[in-house]
Give the backbone structure.
Amino acid sequence: MSSDFEAYEQDFGTVTAEITNKIGKIPKLSGEEKTQLVLNVDKQLEEVRELLEQMDLEVREIPAQSRAMYNSRLKSYKQEVEKLEKDFKRSRIAYSDEVRNELLGDDAISTESQLIKLREERAHLLDNTEKLERSSRRLEAGYQIAVETEQVGQEILSNLHTDREKIQRARERLRETDANLGKSSRILTGMLRR
């Protein structure tokens, strides 16, 4: 199990290093090249999220005594991905502002304060959207756990019902056996008297 986790870790390290490198290049590029790089980074971020999910599944299979260490490593990887996503969003915003400046020309200088304000608002909106998405994923996971718990509870109730029926049948057999023993005892007593 841990060897699978470590293989995912290696893939994670490789892909995140590539993403970091590409995020640094985004503001320096222009045109179609920049657009392609943005799309490529977006795809790699999705790949990293899938690797995190795989690592999470592997951690659940690891024995309890080793799990804490792997959980802390997984948590730090999740934080690293969050930072990468924020850096990527900032680089995309810088990219959008650069395109806007190219289109507006000299007028862009006069509206610099508006652009700064817009950039801050956009970053704030992106952060809020990200928080909402994370909350939605947590709610979905909580709902899934509730459904699984309900299924386990139903199975337990079914098993208890079956066990109760078995106990009642055993009790009935015991009463019949007791009654038969009583009859046998009376018959033997009668035979002894004769």
About this structure: The chain is about 95% helix and 0% strand. Residues 112-193 form the longest helix (82 residues).
